[in-house]
Amino acid sequence: MIEIKDIPNFINGNWVSSRSEKFLDVKNPATQDILGKVPLSTNKETLEAIDASYLAFNDWRRTPATERIQYLFKLKTLLEENLTDLAKTITIECGKTFDEAKGEMRRAIENVEVACGIPLMMQGYNSEDIAPGIDEMMIRQPLGVSAIIAPFNFPGMIPFWFMPYALACGNTCLVKPSERVPFTLHKITRLIESTGLPKGVFNLVNGAKETVDCILEQPKVRAISMVGSTPVARYIYSKAATYGKRAQCQGGAKNLTVVMPDADQDMSVKVLADSAFGSAGQRCLATSLIIMVGDSVDWFKDSICEIAQNRKVGYGLETGIEMGPVISPHNKNRIEGLIQKGINDGAQVLVDGRGAVISGYENGNFIRPTVLDKIPLNSDVFHTEIFGPVLGLIHVDSLDIAINIINSHVYGNMSCIFTSSGMAARKFRYEVDAGNIGINIGVAAPMAFFPFSGWKESFFGTHHGQTMDAVDFFTQKKVVIERWPKEWSRKF
Amino acid sequence: MIEIKDIPNFINGNWVSSRSEKFLDVKNPATQDILGKVPLSTNKETLEAIDASYLAFNDWRRTPATERIQYLFKLKTLLEENLTDLAKTITIECGKTFDEAKGEMRRAIENVEVACGIPLMMQGYNSEDIAPGIDEMMIRQPLGVSAIIAPFNFPGMIPFWFMPYALACGNTCLVKPSERVPFTLHKITRLIESTGLPKGVFNLVNGAKETVDCILEQPKVRAISMVGSTPVARYIYSKAATYGKRAQCQGGAKNLTVVMPDADQDMSVKVLADSAFGSAGQRCLATSLIIMVGDSVDWFKDSICEIAQNRKVGYGLETGIEMGPVISPHNKNRIEGLIQKGINDGAQVLVDGRGAVISGYENGNFIRPTVLDKIPLNSDVFHTEIFGPVLGLIHVDSLDIAINIINSHVYGNMSCIFTSSGMAARKFRYEVDAGNIGINIGVAAPMAFFPFSGWKESFFGTHHGQTMDAVDFFTQKKVVIERWPKEWSRKF
Amino acid sequence: MIEIKDIPNFINGNWVSSRSEKFLDVKNPATQDILGKVPLSTNKETLEAIDASYLAFNDWRRTPATERIQYLFKLKTLLEENLTDLAKTITIECGKTFDEAKGEMRRAIENVEVACGIPLMMQGYNSEDIAPGIDEMMIRQPLGVSAIIAPFNFPGMIPFWFMPYALACGNTCLVKPSERVPFTLHKITRLIESTGLPKGVFNLVNGAKETVDCILEQPKVRAISMVGSTPVARYIYSKAATYGKRAQCQGGAKNLTVVMPDADQDMSVKVLADSAFGSAGQRCLATSLIIMVGDSVDWFKDSICEIAQNRKVGYGLETGIEMGPVISPHNKNRIEGLIQKGINDGAQVLVDGRGAVISGYENGNFIRPTVLDKIPLNSDVFHTEIFGPVLGLIHVDSLDIAINIINSHVYGNMSCIFTSSGMAARKFRYEVDAGNIGINIGVAAPMAFFPFSGWKESFFGTHHGQTMDAVDFFTQKKVVIERWPKEWSRKF
Amino acid sequence: MIEIKDIPNFINGNWVSSRSEKFLDVKNPATQDILGKVPLSTNKETLEAIDASYLAFNDWRRTPATERIQYLFKLKTLLEENLTDLAKTITIECGKTFDEAKGEMRRAIENVEVACGIPLMMQGYNSEDIAPGIDEMMIRQPLGVSAIIAPFNFPGMIPFWFMPYALACGNTCLVKPSERVPFTLHKITRLIESTGLPKGVFNLVNGAKETVDCILEQPKVRAISMVGSTPVARYIYSKAATYGKRAQCQGGAKNLTVVMPDADQDMSVKVLADSAFGSAGQRCLATSLIIMVGDSVDWFKDSICEIAQNRKVGYGLETGIEMGPVISPHNKNRIEGLIQKGINDGAQVLVDGRGAVISGYENGNFIRPTVLDKIPLNSDVFHTEIFGPVLGLIHVDSLDIAINIINSHVYGNMSCIFTSSGMAARKFRYEVDAGNIGINIGVAAPMAFFPFSGWKESFFGTHHGQTMDAVDFFTQKKVVIERWPKEWSRKF
């Protein structure tokens, strides 16, 4: 599956081995087997990639949008043809199940499809006769070099919230994958290469924080798109601004969800278990806290525990597995520590997933689904993004209190409600301070023709990824006022 | 005209005198007469204004957009009824001529008119059946408290690039006028008060840098709109980002303009003199450098000097005056110093406006129109924003060279071309790196239904002021995914 | 209130008495008092009005949109200042209550407000580099002369679904009011005149079918907007097409509404009574048939009868009156005949409003609220638009059957559901074939920033009135492709 | 190339031979060889196709747009893979050159690309809180069955102005190709079949006027898209309206073009010869009349004659051929008759293309390029669409006169100007009454992301083909107003 060992960079259309002396091991989180080595590229290499992007810009920008999208149409076909291989690669280096990985790639492809509509999406607007004989128009033009800093949890999807739009709008693009999961983007870049995209339009540089800093400090880079934890998002947003760039930085989340007494019982339990434990809880739209309102506790609590206990944990490539490992031993330790901290702070363990041993994968970073009840509102497990398969429960008497708790939280990525009442749904939608709202939905991930929103500490910036938000982010507006006065006519 | 002496703040619907011990004199730049005192409000006062804005938000946001715009319709009427008084106030404290001041207020009113269209502009979008039975929608909701930091050169217009939209979208608003010209906004606030706008929705705090820092550091303030010099714009953009806010910061400009040999001669000379010397060169769209291509030098150079020499300089309230003073003795000194620096660096003085003495206004900060020829490309007068009535000339052989010079400049606010050739115009529009382009236009100020663009060091951010850019800036997108599955139906 | 007796036409900025020999009496429907005479203008007069519109077009089109909307801003102010007088006029000639008439004028004003946003709404779009060096843009330009044929039931509102947009887009406009209620539009035209609108831009011609035919046959008229009964709408749509025009023709309605067992009881009864009997049932969004699902019959049927019986009927200008007369004795007879026909066909009379005698208004065309139960699906009262205060009830077992009944009807103007279930609301919204859907709303009249939709036999055309639909209808798209090839450059 | 002889219909996913007794021969216009037979289907067959479309609608409409577009992505790939075969088929049955036919298919594919963006294009819009607690949204829903009536001159392209959008929006579709060129659409339908599109979603019925009438009279058909001559367009538009349908009907053209003295000489002659004689003049964007302004006659007239004389006429599949035959002997006779009529009316023949004999293709319907000078403004050759390789010249003194002549013409499809002056271009663009404007463009065919416009007698309707116009045409707007009042809450 993963045939190469040492990951090269892709600079100006060439695959080049890093000249760095610093490499990190990339490991299969289910086995701790070393899959290969990823370079922490030197700043010189990063600068070469930026220069390649910069030099390729002029021609790429002058390539009509109708031609630029032909590469995306090809990429869609290639991604579909290679879906199985890409999904397996994701499972191997990132840990999620094969089905989850395929779903991830589907969302990536959806963004390519939407970006194929750039000729329409990139249109400007115009007014005739703003004054007699004077016309005005707004033209969208690309920025130049854009950079994408990708996280480890969706190596195949998240770059696609930005990259297809950046390219389709006429920008050149530099992507830095997470150093923990470099293989997926490596393979995707191979496919991009196969589309025949001109040299330098798309570049890939492996690295970690030093690479990010180098990118941030370079004036040739005009725009930064990033997804990661809130402290890193805040750091990058602030530093990008200091260097005058535009930035869109997506951070952490807690995704508080409400279960009302009138919700569909079987469906909500099932859907919420998938939300809490899918991808081992390592996703920015994982439900981490559920607020049970009124009597819903009666039918919800036991059921969610039962489903948590029975969830089949193991290696994501094996059949029937419902949940894989977390990304690293370090993350496993951190998560188990946060569970203990929660217990110390007063939460009750209903299901304890610590100390998981998966037969045949004894070295894997596995944690089984964990359910904590009676989460204190001033505890770490309430406030901190755990990023693991840990679900906290809270019980309140009314929807109003539930909404107050949600709105008191620093994060505002997603919030869902399960109910059969149109009134409760409308109240929730109207009042909750979160960017992505689900009504009877467990993972309210916006389609590619909607922005991937996010509010409060979950997002820094004004334009989100996907759809017209991405087009706005990756273009700059040029306003033209034009006059050709009659009296200038002499000949005609 | 200006009846009050000490400027109060307007907080939570009340006019309150500042408890500060620090006050600055506000002076008429044509006379140096003291018009009154403006407080540098204490941080405690600023926080009171922020709190008032914060507390007023919930009700204002819940006021339907159709009602919110009624205050704007009223404001439009009031601004028109008080146009003369407002324009005179601008002339008195800011120095520009009465006609220029009236034109300024016209542009302010235009923005009120456009913001009256918020019910339409603020619409979100939606898709039925993103999957069977699942719908998705994007709703625009206001941010909360927004703050506007205004510059001295357009005290009546620039706040309107932002404020009508901020309010119409359901935000509350805090404005800090320039401490040099606080009277205009004071009077405008009186009119806003007359519309019956609910308490706390609009607040006015006087102050300087300390007030700005206080605003930037407050988490309750969600958005910063600012116009000023590039160093200040960069500072505010960076600091706003550090505090997690969105910001739109407009900075300096140089507005290089090209005159082609085939341009209409009379028109281009006249229009460009107005652009260079209007508002005494103190505007972000003032043409500061003109690149004469080929033979255009023959008919352009002498004519522009003649018109510069004959421009009638004086007190803006007097009839026939075409140009007023600059804002302060300090600015006058700085501008005259830059002229001398230009001469030292090799430029030739064709018209020297230094040492101007205007009879009857001997204390005024007057500089007459100044024309410098053969501006060296590595000189300060080439690179620095002078913000005074100083026009530099450059002579080149081709449009290509002219565009190269323009694109080498750090600023990218406006750039214009004068030509009769459709080809030259298109090439210019396509290739020039500036946000506002004029074709045979001297001051390419976008109408209120276009963004006030700006590129490179002239703007930091992604959304500009005016029109849909402002709506995007002053709203956050909430994405809602909704499912009401069939099988949940039991009763019907 | 109504001071004039003989209604003049308004042609080319002049009020001119008709030279016709045919006049009709205009009567107060509450008293049968003659209010004045309305001319059936000669075709010659209609042609004069068309010619005036045609000649005024060239200058009006060349007036910038920013100037054109100034007349609308003024008109908004004038309509508000004259709201009471206009509403009283509506009550006097049309019969509805004063409150209903004021509400009507509010909706008219809303459309003026939205049309003030034309500079933004009328923008075209553009693409740079559809091929290297070739640009394309779409410009919206006005059509020329547009004509509006108004119905009797909303003399003050319905012309505003079209007219403000037609004018703001740069068209000139000819309006023919209903010959039964000419005074309201006469007064509105007086206000339009006061705005200072240039001569010929707006013209008013009184008349009936002959006038309509004359308008339809004239090639100078480019667009027809009309609201009336379905047979007339179909006739005008077809004839307009034969003469090559674009047309938007709104016809009849039945507005079947569903009451679910889980609906809010008090609210739904109250709201639906207002919908059925408001304006004496003479509106295209009056609920005429209510389908009670399951147990809802238990609490709904008696309550609606009670409220129907107690509705206070009388002269609309008197305090406390909740319902006025129908427009004419002829209409009263027709409605009473349809009630009898319904009874003959098998419906049960629960409340019989026939033979109403209103003390002091014995000559008025009054019918009291009428409720018929068990409406047979093959009866005339099921199929025919009654246009009077007659409500039919149907009882079914399930929402599915209710929707089937709705979708079997030839009309598709509005359909509402009363429920607390999000699921029922979504199913209804998704499946019902009607253009305007209400969820717990009795009169789902779209706001001015939404199209006034209508499906099936209730509407003929593609663009509705109001908002961007009106802008699309009143403009034609001009597509421009532009090339200024490099090689053509010789001089520069 | 064309393997089949008798063209079947494609109804409900099956290829079925017509049961008709009426068949027409399809001939190669370059040879008069019989290529096969096309049925004039019986009305019973047409009704079967309509019924199949009608029955397929419900499921297709409920297929999410994201799935519907997958068939279009596949169709794009298939059209590209079969481009050569399709282009050859076009040449064989329609006569145009192979290069022209390939270009035609490119434009078809572009429309498929744009329609792949339907998920975004089909979004509705929404407003929160139109009143406190009340929300409103507009949803676009498909119409049902749509029908496309195709002309002979672009058998591969014109159906794509409509069909991809109709399908992507969720409508089902019935296409009737021109009975003269049925093979191309037959082959395209084979490709559509290969995409796996569900049965009944796309249907093809062969026939002529009787088939069209049958379609027009069927209430199940909701929308008619048609391109043809103006009399037929007018007939269909009128009849569709009589049956309550929406219709978009494109008719004839004359495409008057202006050559200014300052135009690029070589380019304009070359480009205009291509426009006049390309596709043997049988296209709705063929330049048929050129107005030479002032001195342009000196360099334009002789050059265009020379290029006309030297144009290589012959069988379109042979290498180097620049122009093919016209569609039929009848059309050839008609065109030659119109040339003679022009001469009789006073025009001067500069190049006479009549009596063409092409060696090896003596039976072909060839006419060589023809140039007539001094076209009288009251002659048939001025007014009538010739639809053959006949170019008329007119000489005037000024652009104003040229524009007057253009605007006096009944057609308004396209109009172009050749000039280097921005002023002349703007004046032309602003003043000319034509829907498609070219500036230094010979065939101003809008890209697929712009509407294919057309004004005056060249178009009947309000929405054009392509892009958002097609989406507007193929959807109906449903407006939903929703209230879930707080006081209804009892449980929570």
Q: Can you walk me through this structure?
A:
- The structure is a homotetramer of 492-residue chains.
- Chain A has 492 residues and is an alpha/beta fold.
- Chain A has two domains: 9-251 and 458-479, 3-Layer(aba) Sandwich (Aldehyde Dehydrogenase, Chain A, domain 1); 255-439, Aldehyde Dehydrogenase, Chain A, domain 2 (3-Layer(aba) Sandwich), CATH 3.40.309.
- Chain A is 38% helix and 22% strand.
- Chain A is built from 16 helices and 22 strands.
- Chain A has helices at residues 43-61, 65-81, 83-94, 98-115, 118-121, 163-168, 182-194, 209-217, 230-242, 265-277, 296-310, 329-345, 380-383, 399-408, 422-431, 467-473; strands at residues 9-11, 14-16, 23-27, 34-39, 124-131, 134-142, 145-149, 172-176, 202-204, 221-227, 246-250, 256-259, 289-293, 348-351, 370-373, 390-396, 411-412, 414-418, 436-439, 455-456, 459-460, 475-483.
- In chain A, the strands form six sheets. Chain A has a seven-stranded mixed sheet with strand order 14-15-16-13-12-18-19, sandwiched between helices. A six-stranded mixed sheet of chain A has the order 9-8-7-10-11-21, sandwiched between helices.
- In chain A, helix 1 (43-61) crosses helix 8.
- Mean pLDDT of chain A is 96; it is low at 488-492.
- Chains in contact: A-B, A-C, A-D, B-C, B-D, C-D.
- The interface between A and B is large, with 59 and 59 residues.
- Strand 22 (475-483) of chain C pairs parallel with strand 19 of chain D, so a sheet runs across the interface.
